[in-house]
Amino acid sequence: MDATIFNALAEPSRLKIVELLRVQPRSVNEVALLLKLRQPQVSKHLHTLAEAGLVTVQPIAQQRIYMLQPEPFVRLEDWANSFQHYWDQQLDSLENHLKKG
Amino acid sequence: MDATIFNALAEPSRLKIVELLRVQPRSVNEVALLLKLRQPQVSKHLHTLAEAGLVTVQPIAQQRIYMLQPEPFVRLEDWANSFQHYWDQQLDSLENHLKKG
DNA sequence: TCTGTATATTCCTTGACAGGAATATACGCG
DNA sequence: CGCGTATATTCCTGTCAAGGAATATACAGA
User: Fold this and answer.
1) Per the structure, how many domains does chain B have?
2) CB 3.0-4.6 Å disulfide test: which of A7, A15, A82, A100 passes with B10?
3) HEC profile for chain B?
4) Nearest nt by C1' to A61 Cα
5) pLDDT tens digits for B30-71?
6) Which nucleotides of chain C does any protein CB come within 7 A of?
7) CATH code for the domain in which residue A78 is found
8) Is pTM, for the whole model, over 0.85?
9) Which nucleotides of D are covered by protein (CB under 7 A)?
């Protein structure tokens, strides 16, 4: 798993943007208005999200509509899910540490 | 969703630590040796992970065994999973943008 | 209590990054 | 082409966090 996606989501404003775009695709100004952020910062954040592969752009006239990209979120879900297979084993290992120590 | 968990996982070394601890709980030195990091940095990273609620500590003599905490990963999986319900709707909304402009 | 091992903490320096302000670019329209 | 709208980019500055080095703390055993 690459840390890039986590880095992109680590910034509170960016996380809010993602949760906004989850509902529906939006233009830069729409995001700025809804989150009460300045347009340049929103552009920068969306750029970061795009570089991380979390969003894509669809130009419409002068507007640029940003929408989420499914794939990274699927990867994220799979990654988080893969941890479930280890919890039992973890407890066993801890007991080993406690006994063998 | 809180950005704290993403922030904790955004640092490459910390992400590696998490993926190590996924296999089994480990002491600070074990992590340091396996990842070829210095002990103080590992302690710091583990402290950050603990503050984010991703790991817990189990002291054994002088050693401190760190292990993952399931709950945050379950939350993360649920969050990522919740995005799946929106993709179809997203495409519809984009089309609306394209038509209505 | 002294020693060695395991871990945590502090101080310092440096790089990355976010926000603000200003400006540049893209595009449609008259 | 000139103008207005929408968005991107640049420059600057302050903050924060990571790594290195040194040191402090915790604990077990002789």
Assistant:
1) 1
2) A7
3) CCCHHHHHHCCHHHHHHHHHHHHCCEEHHHHHHHHCCCHHHHHHHHHHHHHCCCEEEEEECCEEEEEECHHHHHHHHHHHHHHHHHHHHHHHHHHHHHHHC
4) C27
5) 999 999 999 999 999 999 999 999 999 999 999 999 999 999
6) 4-10, 17-23, 26-28
7) 1.10.10.10
8) yes
9) 4-10, 17-23, 26-28
